[in-house]
Amino acid sequence: MTRRLKLRIVAGHSGLTGTIGQMDLHRPGLALAGFIELFPSGRIQLLGNTEILYLSRLSEQARGEAIKSLTSYPLPCIIVTNHNIPPDELVTACNSAKIPLFVSRLNTTELTFYLSNYLADRFAPSESVHGTLVDVYGTGMLLVGRAGIGKSEIALDLVERGHRLVADDVVVVTRKAPGVLLGTGPQMLRHLIEIRGVGIIDVRQMFGVRAIRLQKRIETVVELSDWDGKETYERLGLDEIEQEFLGIGIPIVRLPIYPGKNITVIAEAIALAHHLKIYGHNAARELVSRQTATMKQKRQIAEYLRWDRE
User: Fold this and answer.
1) How far does Cα 1 stand from its chain's mean position?
2) Catalytic amino acids?
3) N or C end of the chain: smaller count of CB under 10 Å?
4) What is the layout of strands, in order, in the sheet containing 180-184?
5) Could you tell me if 220 and 275 lie in one domain?
6) Residue 183 and residue 116 share a domain
7) pLDDT tens per residue across span 133-153
């Protein structure tokens, strides 16, 4: 990341072991001008052309006081953009306060874009989920259910049919943006599937790179459960329910299984049905519309024939 940001440290080397506690960035123009109320000292401070030009226009004494006021806070670091040369007073103050001072060749807009994306990724909330994540026809499908119910076997069957494995057994779910959940696998388990009675299978080595991907957006959840004849299962699919991860609801399909049931084909149908819903087609609602139209037509015919006395 340092190479992408074109960073070069010029002062405050002893402060490199510090931590960054906030993902937002700040340009301390008002703080340099003397207004320090509500100053967000926990953020990375960016000094662009405006701030450097402002400091260069100040007298030596005023510039020293402005920089002293800024560096009196425990700042994570200061980055000077546009390859500007930081004032000597700033270099001295950063060395004294153990605040890392960097210079970047990027302009402020570019650096803000790259650094904000990086920090958003690092600060994104995440949780681990027991399940298997597969890319089925471009739909991120998370298979969940009790241990030993067959999630890994279904994933292996899907891979053999040309779909792509993301993670097995442990899925790390991260909220990357509002409404977006991204799933990936732990580094140690990446591209591996455990098949009970067989052992560990390396999907990448066995099926090639076409059968894997590092991460995928989670778009639907399939909960596998043992068939129970006393249980009432959804027949039409009108009642759309969701399962929540990190405050985001994901559509869930509760799928009962029993010996001989082709779960792989059903999983593919679920993925395709999800695509159709995205494009505005819902088979269950279409059926209800047809039924409603048929009943309306029958009522109209009955009403017409009721007064037909010929």
Assistant:
1) 19
2) 130, 151, 169, 235
3) C
4) 126-130, 170-177, 180-184, 215-217
5) yes
6) no
7) 999 999 999 999 998 888 999
